[in-house]
Structures are given as structure tokens and as C-alpha cells.
Structures
1.
Amino acid sequence: MSQNISPNYYKELIDLQDVEGVEAQFKSLLAVPIESISDLEKWLEDEKDLLFIIDEAMTGHQVDFYRNTEDADIKSTYLHDQQAIQPLLMKYVAKLMINAVILLILLN
């Protein structure tokens, strides 16, 4: 029994199919010059916002897939997230954390 399920229970504020665009957002964040505590606070807020919108989309895709495993498009989207976006997240989250720690040390 197949249901017509609307994915409107989450906001997709980023196009995760555009891997280069997602990576560009991470690179842009890492390139922000930080010279003060207020710059760091703004940078941390931007980092949190970027990670939140990626997580929101990925979680929504995962729930879509769990709710309807027979839909080829939903499965393709979920697998794309796992194979392309998750490794990118692992790479850049580590860099963002290292950057934040170094900045905190330097600015204190």
C-alpha cells in the first residue's frame, strides 16, 4: 500500500543536490576574516545556521525515505545525502571546529 506523503513537515533551505554549492558555503565560512570577539560570535552564529539548514534537509530526506522506501526519487535523494553530503560534512565540520578553537585561543 503506497501513500501520497507530503514532505512539507520540514524546510528545505538548501539544495543538497548542488554539492559544489554546499562546499562553497563551507569554504566561504572558513575564509571569513575574524579579528575580534564580535567577529567570532557572528562567525559561530553563521556556522550554526549553515549546519542547521543542512541537518534539517538531510533529516527530512531521511524521514521521507523511512516513510516511503519504495519511491525511487526519495531513495535517490537519501542515498545522495549519505554518499555525497555526509562525507563533505565530516570534512568541513572538523575544519570548522579546529578553526573555532584556534580563534578562541588567539582572541583570549
2.
Amino acid sequence: MTARIIFAITAASTYLLLFLFFIFMNKPSIASWMFLFSPIVILWMAYMIIKFGKYSGVELKPGEEWGYEDKRKEDLGMF
């Protein structure tokens, strides 16, 4: 993972922990504003992961469909 992705995940997680902290400390006005902006934080984190993330899985061959990478086709028993 790149530093940008780690920062985005850390920032969104910290935002969530702060939100929970303000709820626990009975600060509804701050928690309400944070709740309003939480979709923006999550969308920003998802955007950063999609834009800067690196796919490390196996590329599909022509005619193949998506499946489980950790299982062999023979072990699934459905084909």
C-alpha cells in the first residue's frame, strides 16, 4: 500500500473514533455535524484507494470469469 492510501485509511478511522468519542462525551451538536460530513470522508477514502491502489491478483484470461483466487476450480465442486 502506498503512503496516500495508508493516510486516507488512518484519517477516516480517526474521524470515526472522534465521532464515537463525541457521542460518548454527550456532545450531540459536534457529533451531528460529523455525521453530516461522514459520507464525504468515506467517499474520499474510497476514491484514494481506487485511484492509487495497486491490484496484486491474477489477471483473467480471455473467456474467464471472476472467481475465488484462493481455491482451485476442481476444489469448488461446481464445474
3.
Amino acid sequence: MTMEGPMLCKLMETSYHAARDLLLEAAREMDEAGSAARQGNPTLARGIALGAEVDLLKAVDLLKTVGALQRLG
């Protein structure tokens, strides 16, 4: 099964935007983790940072997907 050009482009675009959104969310979460740490709440800071790490890993997977889709095109 081959993908048509417009469908492939839309899939790449959607994956790219989702990765971008996850990266922005991870940055916000790391800012929140820093604030929690400065306020003396290391447990909360670690929990928030863990969520940011998960978002970063998801973003990396999506960017790998975009790369794979580009090779298909």
C-alpha cells in the first residue's frame, strides 16, 4: 500500500505540529518544575520533570515518524 502525496503531507504536518506542541508543553513543565524546586518542594519538582521527560520522549518519537514519512515521500 502506498500513500498519496497529499495524505502523506498531511500526516507529516500533523506529526510535526504534535511534536512541536509536546516540546512546548515540556518546556512549560520544566519551568514549573524549577519553580517547585525553588519553593522547596523537590518531590513535586521531580514529578513535574518526569512528566516533561515523557513529553520529550513522545516528541522524539513523533519527529522520528516525520523522518520516516519523508523517506516514504
4.
Amino acid sequence: MANATCAHCGAPYESGRSDRRYCTTRCRNAGNPRRCERDGCDRPHRAKGRCNRHYKDERYPDQRYAFPDDPEAKRRRDLAKAKRRRAAQRRADAEDVDRDVVGERDGWRCVCVVARWTSAGDTRTH
């Protein structure tokens, strides 16, 4: 570990790399004189004159990556992503099933085998 001095705030810090100039991410962002070219955006420049958020908005206009407006849509997207990942790990060749569609179809009642046992008087639940 080498001792270094931050190029923005001047504080001493230990660095594991010789080319590191700033002590923290906050100092690195503050030390970057280039800003996003969008009006009213004060974030540091990342690529093509835009900050990370605005660059992704332009690059992927039909998808809301950074800040989704609908948290319920984000929940559904994250659940579907996790389900695809688990299926890929198991190498399952199954079709995608939307749990909201199945819930609406079944009246939001569990119709699994365990639920049938409990309705028959068994004490097991899930």
C-alpha cells in the first residue's frame, strides 16, 4: 500500500494502486470538471457528454434502467429475472409463467397439494 494525497481535498490516504488520484468516489466526482450536458443535471460526465442516468436513458429508450417510475413493474421484472436465472441454473426447459395471471385465474387461492392436505384436516401448512 502506498501513501498518496487526494487531488481534490488534499487529504492523505492509502492506495493499493499507483494511478489512483482521489481518496473517495465523492472526491472523484467533485474533481471531475466535466458535467452532464443536460439542462439542470449536476452529475459528473460519463460518456458522450451525459451522466450515467441520461446516457442510459438515450441508449435504451424503451427500458427504464436506473429509476423506474412504477415500483410494482420493477418488482415483476425482478421476480421474472430471478426466475429465469434459477431456471437457467437448473437447465430447465419450461415456459415462462406470469404469477399474476395465474393468481387472477385461481382467485388468489393456493391450489397446491399442501393446501389440499390442510383443507382435509391435516395440520401441515406451507
